[in-house]
Amino acid sequence: MERIGLTAVTGALALASGLALAFAGAADPLVVVAGMLAGIGLTLLLWTARMWADEGTGQTEAAATPPPPPPGPRVEDVLGAVDDPLLLVEGRQVIRANAAAIAALGEHVVDDDVRLAIRHPAATDLLTREGHAGGSVELIGLGDADRVWTLSVLPLGETTRLVRLSDHSATRATERMRVDFVANASHELRTPLASLIGFIETLEDANGPDDATIRARFLGIMAGEARRMQRLVDDLISLSRIEADKHRAPADAVPLGTLARETADTLRGSRGGATRIELAIEEGLPPVSGDRAQLSQLLHNLVGNALKYGDLAKPVRVAVARDGSGMVRLTVADQGDGIPAQHLPRLTERFYRVDPGRSRAVGGTGLGLAIVKHIVERHRGRLDIASTPGVGTTVTVLLPALAETPSAAVAAE
Known about the structure:
Blueprint: H1 2-24, H2 29-64, H3 75-80, E1 86-90, E2 93-97, H4 99-105, H5 114-117, H6 121-127, E3 135-140, E4 148-155, E5 160-167, H7 169-205, H8 212-244, E6 252-254, H9 256-270, E7 277-281, E8 288-290, H10 292-309, E9 316-322, E10 327-333, H11 356-361, H12 368-378, E11 382-388, E12 392-400, H13 406-411
Parallel strand pairs: 7-9
Antiparallel strand pairs: 1-2, 1-5, 3-4, 4-5, 6-8, 9-10, 10-12, 11-12
Helix pairs in contact: 1-2, 7-8, 8-12, 9-10, 10-12
């Protein structure tokens, strides 16, 4: 505004000068007109020059003062964006901690000595090294006896360091399960093999006419051990196939009620016409989305376990019904000794047995419930095992039902 006003004043003075020249020679009309035109022209010239000067000055000032940069993220926002526990340490004092670190170590860690925040001998050795050097170390038992952490230290300056805790418990547990699986599978195969080899060596010496009874008994034992090995190998192959397909959900329409009836009839026939299985199948059930062969295996494993481990004088109840949440619910309940609560979380582990002697005596391989768990996972269902010692065990499986369309209705009961 000040520049515009100054230009206006200058133009007015120029115009006045032109008028003065004009009136100075008023006697001559041409002189008057020429003086006025000169004043107007001088005013326009000065105005244009001022406008150009203003534009140039504005560009120069804009170039000389660039806009301020946008504000950067705060330290708290950066730390909070990471899921692993993070500590920002100045010297030996924790000056910042993200939510994951507070959840893992406690709210007291901020402003605390880092040796007190992370109470572990290996962490103390790394965090108190001379020169505030970086590095990493494995911490076992921090917060929980089964937790495995990797502590990493990254120097950010002369006295500032970033401390990160990475939880590797799941990876370590998976590795331990793999090692246990190989060891257990080897043991399960070695035991019947040792029996077979021993009996074969005995039969090689017992070839006389008076050894027929011994040979018959030994051959029976050998046949039983061979069948046990065959069941184990079959279960291992089955488990491997289910795991290979676990990322591909089955989509066939399978009538679970009909499959439960077929399973019950098969098991009754294979057990000398036993009538312990009681069925309760809801009418008009929609089919489930599944793999018929795998669901048949699931039913055989669950109902077979209930028959083997339940009270021989009491029934095994098998029920199939709608769950009310777009799922079909299968329930297999026995009345027997039940399972203590501490064993329930591990029942679906491979080769885990509550009573190893009894399991082997009834022909179990230790893989039945592991196979059931993987079948349920592949079918995007849910598995629940509830048991009360002295009362019995109930296994519940929820499987997704297919939408009730004309084609689905044909596949239903």
